[in-house]
Write a structure and sequence with these properties.
Blueprint: H1 3-10, H2 14-24, E1 33-34, H3 35-42, H4 46-58, E2 62-64, E3 68-71, H5 76-85, H6 92-103, E4 106-113, E5 116-123, E6 138-140, H7 145-151, H8 156-165, H9 179-192, E7 195-198, E8 206-213, E9 219-227, H10 229-232, H11 237-259
Antiparallel strand pairs: 1-3, 2-3, 4-5, 4-9, 5-6, 7-8, 8-9
Length: about 260
């Protein structure tokens, strides 16, 4: 470890990390948890879990009836702090809604972070996934078009590291799990400037995505349309949707440039 790394390590507050782990223990199927369940899921002692949970309750981010704990709506402040800090999210919703009105399919914007993409904006028209996607939901980047088109922006060294260390699971019979093939697909998507992923995460879902660029031409997110594979297979549908996506991404790009 270098001297700089040692200095950086000294700046890390372990108790804060444990607090974040406690928050992450709650979720779908775990809306209310006991002290023991939180301690086990967060891999911390019961004493630490008790202190952290009661701190969250004291600050209004959680509640308890003495036996069980649950998060309160105030926890949304943490996520909305990110959304409000990015100017793009203040106007992109309007362009997305106009796109959905034209194409009658669901539209989402997501950002790449590590091995996953996180949904930051969403205008749905129907439920295509078994689990409902909301703002803040995450999916493995390599198996959805929103992720692949952003992975395409990575330099070779970073993409190689991603593929070498990512957990590449088989979700459906169509999922590409061969890492060399994945690398090839991602690079091809980058050359085209768009990505289509068909039935690789769920057999009832096909997604088409394009990147969103800031005024400096750096990819900051991706926007997609999600539709049934049967419709995607109809002649001319993907070409039409790609044109519509590009138009919306360009509208967002131009608005960002205008506001600078």
């Amino acid at each position: 470890m270098t001297l700089q790394q040692e200095r950086d390590q000294n700046l890390i507050v372990q108790s804060f990390i444990r607090g974040l782990e406690v928050i992450r223990t709650f979720g779908e199927g775990a809306t209310t948890l006991s002290l023991s369940e939180v301690a086990t899921r967060a891999a911390i002692s019961r004493a630490s879990a008790r202190r952290l949970l009661h701190t969250l309750c004291d600050q209004g981010y959680a509640c308890t009836d003495g036996k069980l704990f649950w998060l309160t709506p105030r926890i949304l402040e943490l996520g909305f702090s990110y959304l409000s800090s990015m100017e793009i999210w203040s106007f992109a919703q309007t362009y997305m809604e106009e796109l959905v009105q034209r194409v009658h399919e669901s539209c989402s914007i997501a950002v790449l972070d590590g091995y996953d993409i996180y949904y930051v904006m969403r205008v749905p028209t129907r439920k295509l996934l078994k689990s409902t996607l909301n703002i803040g939901s995450s999916l493995p980047a390599h198996v959805v078009s929103l992720g692949r088109i952003q992975l395409a922006e990575l330099p070779d060294e970073e993409l190689n590291h991603f593929l070498e260390t990512a957990s590449i699971e088989q979700y459906t019979r169509f999922t590409v799990t061969d890492k060399d093939r994945l690398r090839q697909i991602i690079r091809e998507d980058g050359a085209k400037g768009w990505s289509v992923v068909d039935r690789e995460l769920e057999e009832g879902m096909c997604g088409i995505s394009v990147p969103i660029h800031n005024p400096q031409s750096k990819t900051i997110a991706a926007i997609n349309i999600t539709l049934p594979p049967s419709k995607a297979a109809e002649p001319g549908v993907l070409d039409y949707l790609l044109d519509q996506l590009r138009e919306t991404a360009n509208q967002i790009h131009c608005e960002l440039a205008r506001r600078q």
